[in-house]
Amino acid sequence: MNSSLLHRPLPTLNRRSLLASLSMLTAAGLIEPQLVASVLAGERDLGRLAVQAPSSEGTWSSLHVEGAIPKDLNGTLYRVAPGQKTNHGVQLRHLFDGDALLVKYQLREGNATVSARFVETPERLEEAATGTMLYNEFGTLAPAPGKGGKNQPSINVIRWDGRLLALSEGGHPSAVNEQTLAFEGYWDFHGTLPKDMSFTAHPKFDPETGVGYAFGTHKGRDLALTVFRMELDGRLTQIASLPQPDYFMVHDMLLGSEHLVFVVPPVHYDLPSLFSGRVTPADALRYAASDPTRLIVLRKDGTGEPVILEQPAGMVFHHGNLAEAGDLMTMDSLLSPDASIFQHLAAWSESNPPQAQLPQLTRLTLDLKQKRVTGRSVIGEGQEFPRFDTRMSGKATRHLYTMQGGENFTQQTLVRHDFASATTQHVDAGAGNAFEEAVFVPRHGKSSEDDGWLLHQGYSAVRNETYLDIRDAATLDRAARVWTGQHFPIGFHGNFYYDV
Ligand SMILES: [Fe+2]
User: According to the UniProt record, what class of enzyme is this (predicted)?
Assistant: First the structure.
């Protein structure tokens, strides 16, 4: 392949120029005709292409960079995503299905190296050795029953206690070698995470102390939300076990200056179906539209009775910040008016999955003294993947960064919210491009909020190639676009860590 053509910078494309570029690249033999047809068929196909299995595993250096990587941005961005759409001949149905692919970008003195590798869990290796899909996925059953579900660390990745942990929320974290990305074993936090306890994919970290907070659920019929403090020595301390009226689903949490908040949507599992082994967890989910969404407010030290507040039924995956001022709290959440997202995600591989209600960026105000929700306002439509300057956790924040999607939840617009001026700034990915969650990286430890960089992957269908964008968080101006020469699936979450 002609690398000079491959790395030619492309301007932001409208549909007309996209057509012209695709025709040129097809004529030059640089892109397959069926890929062109897919892109032209609409954004539905862009969504499929953006999450396709990776082109390769490996390490690539001397990457082509448009612009300039900031010389003081020296560290590593880790991303993780479901990396398969088929497993040994079986079509995977759900967007969450597939073995986890880790991608890391190492930035050093203006240069970039990218590595990609599947997390080689014992289950993945067992399937590879037999050439058969043996384990159920969240939304796809294995052809032959018996092995149970797979612990897929494809949701988030953090560095903690001197090791890299890929997180699934369906089981224990996977410890991964930071250099080689080799799987090193399931991690139980020095024996402090009980054997059958899951661990959230969204732990939160206190910016003042460095201590983390996390939660898990016991596999089986225990109906309790177990809350942990992640101690600086790497161990977990259980600080609460909160009984729940039914089997529940909590994906994310909020960390304030004094409290933790868990938002529990009225989503349950049909347990007989789930434990039959003949129905996937995705298909066993039930939405109780007449039940409330519950907010559980717990003191960070676990003491006292949690405050339970109710809101109308809805679905939620992610939250922004939680600001506390005395008895008053302000929290931002991506609330959907129903759980139609589940039907969409479960039928994701089909040609025409049912459409879903899009999440709304919603600000709730809580009065702990009155024990009630005193305000609720929608401040953004169709958005997801909220990130903010986590040095501001628990305090009033001016800025939030989200991704706005179209149909099929393909993220195509980066949004910077300025709550002080009630304004937003947008960056559109451009036709034939998809974006991934943007990670805020402060310029340095003492910089002010919003003074830093936004790092996010993007995917160009025209080039069938993944890139890393580095933007000034305050202006959204792009400092650099790092072309990888590969395509990696757009996924969910990741984090950046400065070199120490
Ligand atoms: Fe998430």
Answer: oxidoreductase
Model pLDDT, residue 352: 80
Percent of the chain whose predicted confidence (pLDDT) is above 90: 78
CATH architecture group of domain 42-498: 7 Propeller (2.130)
The answer to whether residue 96 scores a pLDDT higher than 80 is yes
Q: What is the mean pLDDT of residues 442-455?
A: 93
User: According to the model, what pLDDT value does residue 459 have?
Assistant: 97
Q: Is 493 annotated as a binding residue?
A: yes
> Under 8 Å CB-to-CB from 400, ≥6 apart: which residues?
320, 321, 332, 361, 386, 387, 388, 416, 417, 419
Which residue matches tokens 């909220």?
A: 386
**254 CA to middle of ligand 1, Å?**
13
Q: What is the pLDDT of residues 389-413, one digit of tens each?
A: 999 999 999 999 999 986 567 899 9
**pLDDT score at 278:** 87
Element spanning 114, H or E: strand 111-118
So what's the pLDDT on residue 327? 96
Question: Which comes out higher in pLDDT, residue 296 or 405?
Answer: 296
What pLDDT was estimated at residue 218?
85
- 13 CB-near residues (< 8 Å, 6+ apart): 21, 430, 431, 432, 433, 462
pLDDT at 34 over 80: no
Q: Where are the domains of the chain?
A: 42-498
Say how many Å lie between the CA of residue 248 and the centre of ligand 1.
16
* 492 C-alpha to ligand 1 centroid (Å): 6
190 is in an annotated binding site: no
Longest dimension (CA), the chain: 69
Q: Is 251 annotated as a binding residue?
A: yes
Q: Cα of 416 to ligand 1 centre, how many Å?
A: 19
88 is in an annotated binding site: no
- Rounded to the nearest whole angstrom, what is the distance from the C-alpha of residue 100 to the centroid of ligand 1? 14
CA gap 487, 458 in Å, rounded = 10
Quick check: helix, strand or coil at residue 40?
helix
Cα(371) to centroid(ligand 1), Å: 28
Helices (H), 105-261: 122-130
DSSP 3-state of 146: coil
Distance 375 CA to ligand 1 centre (A): 25
* Confidence class for position 45, pLDDT limits 50, 70, 90: confident
Between CA 229 and CA 300 the distance in angstroms is: 8
**Residue 409 Cα to ligand 1 middle (Å):** 14
